[in-house]
Amino acid sequence: MQTMETRYTHSPLDIQHYSTEELRREFLVESVFVPGEIHLTYTHNDRMIFGGVTPTTEALEIQLSTELGVAYFLERRELGVINIGGPGFIEIDGEKETTKKQDGYYIGKETKHVVFTSEDAANPAKFYISSVPAHKKYPNVKIAIDQVKPMETGEGVTLNERKIYQYIHPNVCESCQLQMGYTILEPGSAWNTMPCHTHERRMEAYVYFDYANEDTRVFHMMGKPDETKHLVIDEGQAVISPSWSIHSGVGTANYSFIWAMCGENITYTDMDMVPMSEMK
């Protein structure tokens, strides 16, 4: 089974009077990984498609053509994949690769078939995918977690000690506009991306997972820096972050998340930092 929900764009003025329910309906994706299914969200923020592919007893392949006005899904798109579940396989135009937890893949445009399977249906792979429009075909690249050197940042004293694994990034592989990575907070740390920033030139989407325990929740901060709002995020849920919005979170315990960006450039450090004195 495959589903795809469409989410439309918003002005900062749109959300000024949103209730909690309205904010969650427009920006939160409550169901990403469903065993045996493909659950996708198509946001009109830079036309990113993201979601979960969770194969169990049968192989799964994203089938999108008429929805995008093309002959096949990746005719005019590139794709990023990171497995956050059990061991599995990705078959790309007949070439099959194993993927353990935290392994990723960049798949270029004009790739006709990408098939996802799990090694064990009782412990299925959970493939998080992000796809954006692409103008050029770049080589497909497997990004094994063992080959990624994390960027260690933050401090325990500020509760934001974390490791950032850059998967789809100019230091690792070429892409048209997609960037994608995996951030793991150390035990005792709770904050990500604080002090916060915006990047008017790029939008972003997060999926939160690997919570420390079942009672862990993340408070995801969004909105203009001088008019912040928040969403309470359960494990395995995703959030859309427009280019004008901050995107930061604090958890009741440590957690991990995958970030994916697209827009005008692929400069990871192209951020407009927000001084803490300007936050409201």
Any key phrases for this structure?
single chain, 280 residues, 7-stranded mixed sheet, 1 helix, 3% helix, RmlC-like_jellyroll, EC 5.3.1.17, zinc
Structure in words:
The protein is 3% helix and 43% strand. 42% of the residues are buried. The model has no long low-confidence stretch (mean pLDDT 95). The N and C termini lie far apart (43 Å). The chain contains one helix and 24 strands. The strands form five sheets. The chain has a seven-stranded mixed beta sheet with strand order 1-3-4-11-6-9-12, with no helix packed on it. It has a seven-stranded antiparallel beta sheet with strand order 2-21-18-23-15-14-13. It has one helix at 20-27; strands at 2-7, 28-29, 37-43, 48-54, 60-61, 77-83, 88-92, 95-99, 104-107, 114-118, 127-133, 141-143, 151-153, 162-168, 179-185, 191-192, 197-198, 202-209, 218-224, 227-233, 238-241, 248-251, 256-263, 272-273. Strand 3 (37-43) and strand 4 form a beta hairpin. The protein has 280 residues and is mostly beta strands. Zn(2+) binds at residues 197, 199, 204, 247. Belongs to the KduI family. It comes from Enterococcus diestrammenae.
